[in-house]
Specification:
The chain is globular, with a radius of gyration of 26 Å. The protein contains 29 helices and 20 strands. The protein starts with 10 loop residues before the first helix and ends in a 10-residue tail after the last helix. Bound molecules: pyridoxal-5'-phosphate.
Length: about 725
Amino acid sequence: MSQTTDIGRPDKKIKLEIAAFSAQSLYEKCQALANNLWWSWNPEAINLFRDLNPQLWAESGQNPIKLLKEYTPETLEARAQEITLYSRINQTYRRMNEYLEARTTWGTNYAGPLGAKPVAYFSAEFGIHESLPIYSGGLGVLSGDHVKSASDLGIPLVAVGLFYYQGYFNQRLDTEGYQNQEYFETKIDEQPVEPALDVNGNPVKIEIVTRTGTIFAEVRHIRVGRVDLYLLDSNVEGNSPEDRELTARLYGGDNRTRIRQELLIGIGGVKALNAMGISPGAYHLNEGHSAFAGLEVIRNLMHEDGMTFEDALRDVAKQTVFTTHTPVPAGHDRFDNAMVDEHLGVLADDLGISQHDLMALGRVDPKNDGETFCMTVLALKLSRRANAVSSLHGHVSRAMWAELWPWRVEEEIPIGHITNGVHTSSWIAPQMSNLFERYFPAKWETHLMDSKVWQHVYEIDPGEFWETHQTLKNLMFTFVRRRLVEQCKRRGESQETLDVMARMFDPDVLTLGFARRFATYKRADLVFSDLDRVIDLFCCEDRPVQVIFSGKAHPADEPGKKLIKRIAQLRNHDKLGSKVAFVENYDINVCRHLEQGVDVWLNNPRRPMEASGTSGQKVVLNGGLNLSILDGWWAEAYDGSNGFAIGNGRRHSSDELTDKRDADALYDTLENEVIPMFYDRDSLGLPQDWINCMKRSVGTLAWRFSSDRMVADYVQRAYVPAAGGKSCEMPF
Ligand SMILES: *Cc1c(COP(=O)(O)O)cnc(C)c1O
């Protein structure tokens, strides 16, 4: 629309045109905000969409693109007038543009050598917001937080993944508590995506040739603040119905689906970057799923620069950073000879290597023909820098892969660690952040990894800190009750039951939260190991305990589903029924509500199976305390007075014995530390020791386990050296 108005025209017409122009532009500003996921971690943008139409906002699943479809430029203008959103829209739009165009960031000082050659960050899932369902759990949310921090810090980084058009699944429990899965198609026109364009301005089209045919894909582009996220989509013309479904669901299908998905991310991802004219300075493989990427880069180096395979491999390894997340051998993708030959045979021919040499790249022992092809092994061989995701997981990973370097002692196995962190503004409640704002120095949001910033938490008035926490706790109960009522309604339960659900939970009672994937090693039902003891603890007259659960089991994981069923059925228990609830359909939205409201976050994996875990880091930001096995991040985070430890990190001769000892330790810690401290009140009703512990938790952990610190570590210890630059000093 033209901005010029003809002065010669009658006044009325000019007015109309100006009105039409500004209506359009207000609408366009909202569109621009909705089309950059920056909005998802900026409360002023979120509030703006919500206030536009609270009911539609909720019904849309907090999806601004869907919300805006209900408006024309004119009706939006009218609505904005009605509720005086005008200046808020303008101001938020201006703030986003200032953010996007900022000249000086942490990255301009510390990621200089990456310059015009960005990091290419590959991940099979990205958890950025609940309205973009292309994640299943912790790994995805970690990738999402990584990308957001890369944006905040101004790191030149592009992200590559898959566009799953059915996402993971919606979880529904039946009356017995058994998990059912439902799949919904994501409507593409309700997502903040546009086609990625090649150097000639045409939509990128990818072809991957296998021995049995060609797989086609297109690429979708999503803006996450300053970072571009590119997602391959195989649901395109030219593909067989089977291949069109490759990018339908996360972790669905069989082994053949899996290798084809991994072909798409790795090989397809590198082809897409090439087509767009992006030449990365470093490659980051977040987990082994994308390890084929290195082979495609080798092919390019051989064809374009005439390198030998060996030289190209050395160059690629120099540029590649690999992060492993899986401490159990069974968790690593493996493929047999036939599967590898079908999918990579053509590429191997191109590289001039034999099928045997190709297989050797995925084998611990290159000569062992009986060994399957392992993606983690490939990733380790194609990367000079490899890391685990916590200190303890570093030890586990070095022991696990020691055979790859038989001439080295374990401490010298070249796998380091960079501990995971979480994206502060995505997980902190606005109420808590407003409280911090009043005590913290100006611009603290851009210095989140600076420990000094967080020391101001000790100045916060204890009553105010507690009150803010109580407010958030009540908001969580409101959310949970609404969900419980909805669940029961759907199952056609009685009005009486609905009324009970609508009143469940007492805000003065110590409230635990447990929410994550229901993988069996996480032992969701550990706290119910000894029902008599639980009843004694939870139903104690003057110091009761209540607990909220949520989480999905993988559709094929029957033992995981059994855990859900066991916990869901406790609602029928005469004593525990009023103390335990299960919220269905765990996602980022449920997670956020629970993280922001619980008193205590419970985490009891079988050590050392939890590589890092990040959910406990989110609760820290909101004043919640961790009660956790000394595993993953908590093994290095717990200092004796910033939360609670379950046990002493010892392992026992069998899983059964370990589970028994850990359950006893959990009860002991609850009984002797957590419950007494929570209920010990001063004359004003404040739990002073507890509040001090909340402050210690924030002051010692919030900066260390922020994804800004994590990304800064990757930049300085991995990306910059991988791109051929010199590491710089840490700024703090
Ligand atoms: C943070 C997060 C996780 C990670 O939880 P862990 O306890 O670390 O396994 C999983 N799912 C969602 C939706 C999350 O936000």
